[in-house]
Amino acid sequence: EKDGHDWFMRKEIFEQPRAVADSLLGRHARNGLLQLDEMRLSDQELRDIDKIIIIACGTSFYAGMVAKYAIEHWTRVPVEVELASEFRYRDPILDYSTLVVAISQSGETADTLQAIRHARLQRSKVLAICNTNGSTIPRESDAVIYTHAGPEIGVASTKGFLTQLVACYLLALYLAQVKGTRYGDEISEIMHQLEAVPDQIASVLSRSDEVYELARSHVGTRSVLFLGRHAGYPVALEGALKLKELAYIHAEGFAAGELKHGPIALVEEGLPVLCVVPPRGRDQLHEKMISGIQEVRARGARTICLAEEGDTSIEPYADHLIRLPKVPVLLQPLVAVVPLQLFACELATAMGHDVDQPRNLAKSVTVE
Ligand code: F6R
């Protein structure tokens, strides 16, 4: 049942190329147009939307953070991302032109369910991104995009997260198509980039031994920091969450630009800092990230950098380098999170923890 793996989680990590490919299947029609079959909202309803609020918990919330970057960039519709448990209790401003997107792997998370009930009472449309057919959240939503990860058994979400990202990109591109904010050629080009991702994830997985060795050398480590910028920031948060929940190690993710506003005070000799380096591009992201890495390194941090193939500029600043395939910055989370999943899984295993059933956690959280 675990396909020869020791844990369901490890099996599910290795299923990700297939899960991502399945989540893309049948979406890109031959005429180049995107189609979302279960999208029960009409094009006119989508055109009328002037604000999107994404609600979710935990790992699904981090998928929502990535979605914000993609949706705003491709559609120019403002997006808020909020923890489901906070959303309802702050008297959010919603109406019929607000689209609420609820992201939930299980479809049963009580915080998220209560939040969508509240949104529907305010006459907002609710779209669910969910991995579980017939679960409560999609049943109570106006529309749904199902992810095709297959059942996720390990408590820590892995393939669930990657397929949520795919669903978010599809939603963003579909909105761009309907609203006319991006041309068909460009949408097709991004779809082709997405369709290349399963093989790219497979290439990251083929180098898992290198990450495992690194992970095992961290047994006994008390604290790890994760840094990212732009779409790499939620990846840093997700890497830190995986380490907390599986290895029970104190871990925190930061937006690299925030370091100087406080967290850099945590850096001391030998502290491992995992850095998600954005691809080199026309923007300043890559340079800014490098300067953040230099700053922590100058204070004694041991930097473990995830950077794209061919990026030699990072070499002088990396104590350890993990190579990522070349993908545009908005899609980079799909490949960058994989080594972080492998790292947490292997480190927890080396520490003797039960990776599939971490202490104090349940797979679906059905209490508020
Ligand atoms: C982390 C994890 C949790 C869930 C969260 C939301 O690995 O699994 O943080 O992501 O409890 O669950 P769903 O997506 O089922 O609503």
TrEMBL record:
It catalyses: D-fructose 6-phosphate + L-glutamine = D-glucosamine 6-phosphate + L-glutamate. It is found in: Cytoplasm. Residues 42-181, 214-358 form the SIS domain. It is an enzyme of class 2 (transferase). Its EC number is 2.6.1.16. It comes from the Bacteria. The active site is at K363 (for fru-6p isomerization activity). This is Glutamine--fructose-6-phosphate aminotransferase [isomerizing].
